[in-house]
């Protein structure tokens, strides 16, 4: 089908995409609209045969795609970005239904897709040359082969394209597995890609955890790029070890924000709240622990509470909400557990209600817990929902140690008027991405990955391209 006919794309019928063709299944499941609790459209569950066929098609397509000049690959990626933009409204609507995101935040994610592709197309594949009297050594980078991308439910589109763009740019083929909680936008993205790319270059198979396990053990998949929980990431690494697959794991975080005493309280407090509650706290790099200097603790906390009380929570259909629901019932129950624990232990709720609403959708009012102990669940674990603890601090080295006292290290923030001083603290924080005077906003212009149990390796940015490539060193000796 030519791009001119693409306006007929059906946004209510969904397929797996194998070797350039739409493929249904006898086995189906449904996503759930988290704002209403109602089932959405049928989605086919891919079988082991579907996966095997997809990997075989990716393997078959790989040599020609690898040998396609990089400039031509970029041209096709840019065409894909343009084509996607033509369907921005339909994708925004679909994302609202499957994720519950308020419309303006869904639109931001949709806008990020073409931005992600365009930025990657500005990059050159790195190479180096070393020469001495005896030899010339060329360090070049070659694609891996068929890659597998396992996508989470919190940002189903931007995290799909964050794997597809660099994989395709560097000459790999890719099989994407969307989350069963949010399968719709990812499947439709890959269906749309068939208008541009040769069959087998980018494919999608939807399904459950069993399908993910089959991806990680498949002998013809060269690399797994996984975004998700630490527990599942460990299973992915263990399974991938059997064939020594390359793995990139971007896992959970328990991000600290350190508030220095010189901040503009009225300006910064609402920003810190946004960092904690954006996407209803369902962000791997959301602010999860807030450390406020004792000299401004009460005033800063009060400003956070004031702003939190103005936040509107509701369905995407309800107008200008800042927050939507928790995306799925499993996560909703987990978040409720943090409320129940904090209430049972008698912690002080500075904002929000200790009892979670019982509406049809999975809604939670944003909540701040005032100064719980260091060993509390809300400090030690990642809730992945709109509930955040605050604590005072007085000694800088001690609060840096407190911030680093976690097995995770994905992101962190430091807020202060003296930017040089704040940046010095930032360099002492054990996290992959540290933000000074901003809440956590990962960008395709820089590699994104975690320290400690927040992951292995990283992707995005120029450095991130190397995650999809093998070093290939040619030593040429002079005769």
TrEMBL record:
PROSITE patterns per UniProt: ALDEHYDE_DEHYDR_CYS (PS00070), ALDEHYDE_DEHYDR_GLU (PS00687)
Keyword set, alphabetical order: Oxidoreductase
Enzyme active site: 250
Domain of life from the UniProt record: Eukaryota
Domain Aldehyde dehydrogenase: 29-472
Gene3D superfamilies: Aldehyde Dehydrogenase, Chain A, domain 1, Aldehyde Dehydrogenase, Chain A, domain 2
Pfam families (alphabetical): Aldedh (PF00171)
Molecular-function GO term, any one: aldehyde dehydrogenase (NAD+) activity
Catalytic function, reaction form: an aldehyde + NAD(+) + H2O = a carboxylate + NADH + 2 H(+)
Enzyme class: oxidoreductase
EC number(s) stated in the UniProt entry for this protein: 1.2.1.3
Stated family: Belongs to the aldehyde dehydrogenase family.
The protein's name: aldehyde dehydrogenase (NAD(+))
Source species taxonomy: Eukaryota, Fungi, Dikarya, Ascomycota, Pezizomycotina
């Amino acid at each position: 089908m030519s791009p001119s006919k693409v306006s007929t794309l059906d946004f209510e019928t969904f397929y797996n995409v194998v070797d350039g063709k739409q493929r249904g299944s006898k086995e189906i499941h449904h996503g759930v609209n988290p704002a209403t609790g109602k089932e959405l459209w049928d989605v086919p569950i891919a079988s082991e045969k579907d996966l095997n066929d997809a990997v075989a098609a990716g393997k078959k397509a790989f040599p020609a795609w690898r040998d396609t000049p990089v400039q031509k690959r970029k041209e096709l990626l840019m065409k894909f970005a343009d084509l996607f933009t033509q369907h921005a409204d339909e994708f925004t609507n679909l994302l609202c239904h499957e994720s519950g995101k308020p419309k303006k935040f869904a639109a931001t994610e949709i806008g990020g897709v073409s931005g992600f592709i365009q930025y990657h197309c500005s990059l050159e594949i790195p190479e180096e040359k070393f020469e001495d009297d005896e030899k010339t050594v060329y360090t070049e980078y070659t694609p891996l082969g068929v890659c597998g991308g396992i996508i989470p439910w919190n940002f189903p589109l931007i995290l799909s394209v964050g794997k597809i763009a660099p994989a395709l740019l560097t000459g790999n083929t890719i099989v994407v597995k969307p989350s069963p909680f949010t399968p719709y936008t990812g499947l439709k993205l890959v269906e749309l890609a068939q208008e541009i790319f040769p069959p087998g270059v980018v494919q999608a198979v939807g399904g459950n955890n069993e399908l993910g396990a089959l991806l990680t053990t498949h002998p013809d998949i060269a690399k797994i790029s996984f975004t998700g929980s630490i527990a599942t990431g460990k299973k992915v690494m263990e399974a991938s070890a059997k064939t020594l697959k390359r793995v990139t794991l971007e896992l959970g975080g328990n991000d600290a924000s350190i508030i220095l005493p010189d901040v503009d309280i009225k300006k910064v407090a609402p920003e810190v709240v946004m960092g904690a509650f954006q996407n209803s706290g369902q962000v791997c790099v959301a602010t999860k622990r807030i450390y406020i200097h004792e000299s401004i603790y009460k005033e800063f906390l009060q400003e956070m509470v004031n702003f939190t009380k103005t936040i509107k929570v509701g369905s995407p259909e309800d107008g200008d909400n800042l927050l939507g629901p928790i995306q799925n019932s499993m996560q909703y129950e987990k978040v409720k557990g943090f409320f129940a624990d904090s209430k049972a232990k008698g912690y002080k709720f500075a904002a929000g209600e200790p009892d979670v609403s019982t509406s049809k959708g999975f809604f939670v009012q944003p909540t701040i817990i005032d100064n719980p102990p260091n060993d509390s669940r809300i400090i030690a674990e990642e809730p992945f929902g709109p509930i955040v603890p605050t604590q005072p601090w007085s000694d800088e080295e001690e609060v840096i140690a407190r911030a680093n006292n976690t097995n995770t290290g994905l992101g962190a923030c430091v807020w202060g008027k003296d930017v040089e001083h704040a940046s010095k603290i930032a360099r002492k924080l054990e996290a992959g991405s540290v933000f000074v005077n901003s809440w956590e906003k990962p960008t395709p212009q820089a590699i994104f990955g975690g320290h400690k149990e927040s992951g292995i390796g990283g992707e995005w940015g120029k450095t991130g391209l190397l995650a999809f490539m093998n070093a290939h060193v040619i030593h040429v000796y002079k005769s």
